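During the no-cost extension, the postdoctoral fellow (Dr. R.K.) reprocessed legacy sequence entries with the updated structure-token encoder. One reprocessed record is reproduced below for audit purposes.
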Amino acid sequence: MKAVKMNKKWPKILMMCVCVVSLSACSAADRIKNIGEPPKQSAIVNPTLQKNYQPVSMPMPPSQIVQKSGNSLWTGAQQGFFKDQRAKTVGDIMTVLIDIDDKGKMENSSERSRATSETAGMPNMLGAESKLNQFFPQAIDPSNLANATADSSYKGDGTIDRKEKIQMKLAVTVTQVLPNGNMVIKGAQEVRVNYENRILQLAGVVRPQDISIDNTVSYEQIAEARISYGGKGQITDVQQPRYGEQLYDIIFPF
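Re-encoded structure tokens follow.
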């Protein structure tokens, strides 16, 4: 019966192996085709037309009705008498100043041990203890029927010591103006150096009053900020484990 069960599992195992080999072959073919060629950069597209783009919905205060005066050029909706050059409508561009200097260190240690012992016997039970020899092939001691012990111990240590520092400027585009005047921004920057493509992406929500007079805003003034900095190319490929090692780490239970 065991041999039959093993035979039924073989087609699934072979199918998994074929899929892994096919994926590896496709990836290898693409890499072989691009030997000697620099990594390709993505085309400039409208962010709102991308497949994963989703409009932002945030809690809004009640709208205010502005009373206009017929004898004045000033309205309560204006923030300045002269034209403001800062970004304020969909499609405008502003510059985000990124200066991240983050450090983190954490140490954790845990230790656990446990020892148990249990003994059970039946010296007297209405004479039934004398009948045990009829059911067991060897003589037993009714006063010492069971004796079990167990010991376990665990010790774990963990240390995290990290440091990130990024200093960059990124031009972003206003993709949406919320009813309260806050602006949703999104932008990306790709810099190719030799055969390595460095990619910086940013998205979030900014207030108009946080934008400085030179049309810049600091990254810590961006709400719901999503900042991603990474790369694609030969150096990134070398730093990543091979597909087989990643698959082994996922499916290996021990």
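Confidence is low (pLDDT under 50) at residues 1-5. The radius of gyration is 34 Å. The remaining legacy entries will be reprocessed before the final report is submitted.
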